[in-house]
């Protein structure tokens, strides 16, 4: 294991500029020590864990203390300054013993884990998508920052950790970029914000974090837990009661922004509020292009089953709500415009999700999916026994095309499987993918919700499932697809003419 630690440390140092070697050595060893803890003493009573940990590091201190090469001394120095209290003492003794006899010690080695936190700032995006906590470390040779990005759109988890330039350069970059608010905080306050967000990250089985997070997170935890002052826990986020949410809906409908909207406006706005409050951080009045994407392209299609009549009202209502919320919070107009524009970008994904309710609700009515599922396809699988749909390849597509394909192909797959049989689902998926990739302009010639139906119609005729003596008649198939034979026939012809598909 020590040879593995040595090799890992050498590779990490070789990939970094010399000025960063003290920080990289600290991060590399902190990460390795955390991984060892997970492997060697992950469970058991505290006294048993401590005994195993003490034994391991005492043995490591003995081995490293007997060696005389520089690489092992660098590892021993890093371990002595980063390992927790249970194993630190024998490592520190071995380090002092070798330091007395070491011929030449590079100056940078003496600075490993010797940085002092002097100040901290918090930079928050005006749209509330996330915040960066910047920890300023003072050092005569290499002043640096550790920057921690917390993503409010994914439950306020720590998504990225990296070493940045000195704090004055970080501030200059934020001020040049604009659209952020910056405030100074005490180090214990910054530590509390970060540790709470790390707790949220740890609640994920597979959190969507960066590679830098994987490398620097152990260094971050070590530095924060060794502060002379206890971290200050952030205030508990206030909850929004159902009555308060309903009051927000009433305020919106009573404002000029709510005038002239469809009868579904109250329901749609309440869904927006529930999503913003229960699934993101920042409150219901947050105006964000990213929040629009999450709501239209991901959450709403997975939350409700609805036909195109209901989904047609959503973009208009969301745009009106964004204007209302931006006015309430006095947000800059360009930020509001950016979020409103995002509605148009992600509307195709919502339209493609419009399907006939399988339990027979009225036109324009929406039906909630089971709250225990996070996936629209999961709900349908219970009906069809189809299994999991393939994931479309989005490589090379722009954002709008990718959004369209991500819902159009799985829905074509689903509709073909349920209507014609499981064997026809893969062909439907492939045709949908070809449509978006090879003929994106064709999409405008029919409603997006019509394309999955037309693909099923085409497959049924290609495989001769429709006609005299066959299982389906044109009118029965059209009824199953909730469309007219003429519309389906016309749209299917567009497919065969443009994509050169078999008739």
Overview of the structural elements:
This protein has 503 residues and is α+β, with helices and mostly antiparallel strands. The protein has 19 helices and 7 strands. A hairpin with a 5-residue loop joins strand 2 (130-138) and strand 3 (144-151). The protein starts with a helix and ends with a helix. The radius of gyration is 29 Å and the shape is elongated. Strands 4-3-2-1-5 form a 5-stranded antiparallel β-sheet, sandwiched between helices. Strands 6-7 form a two-stranded antiparallel sheet. It folds into 4 domains: 1-111, no CATH class; 116-226, no CATH class; 245-368; 383-497, Cyclin A, domain 1, CATH 1.10.472. Helix content is 57%, strand content 9%.
In short:
This protein is α+β, with helices and mostly antiparallel strands.
What is the secondary structure topology, with strand pairs?
Blueprint: H1 2-14, H2 21-40, H3 46-66, H4 70-82, H5 85-101, E1 116-125, E2 130-138, E3 144-151, E4 157-164, H6 167-177, E5 180-185, H7 187-202, H8 211-225, H9 242-253, H10 265-279, H11 289-303, E6 304-306, H12 308-329, H13 333-352, E7 366-368, H14 376-384, H15 399-419, H16 425-438, H17 450-462, H18 474-480, H19 485-499
Antiparallel strand pairs: 1-2, 1-5, 2-3, 3-4, 6-7
**Structural class by SSE content:** alpha+beta
Topology pattern, helix = H, strand = E: HHHHHEEEEHEHHHHHEHHEHHHHHH
The geometry reads as elongated
Main beta-sheet strand count, sense and barrel state: 5 strands, antiparallel
User: What is the β-strand count?
Assistant: 7
What share of residues are in beta strands?
A: 5-15%
Euclidean distance between termini CA atoms: 64 Å
Q: In order across it, which strands form the biggest sheet?
A: 4-3-2-1-5
Radius of gyration: 29 Å
Number of helices: 19
Q: What's the number of domains?
A: 4
Helix content: 55-70%
Mean pLDDT: 86
Low-confidence parts, pLDDT < 50 over ≥5 residues?
Answer: 356-361, 370-384
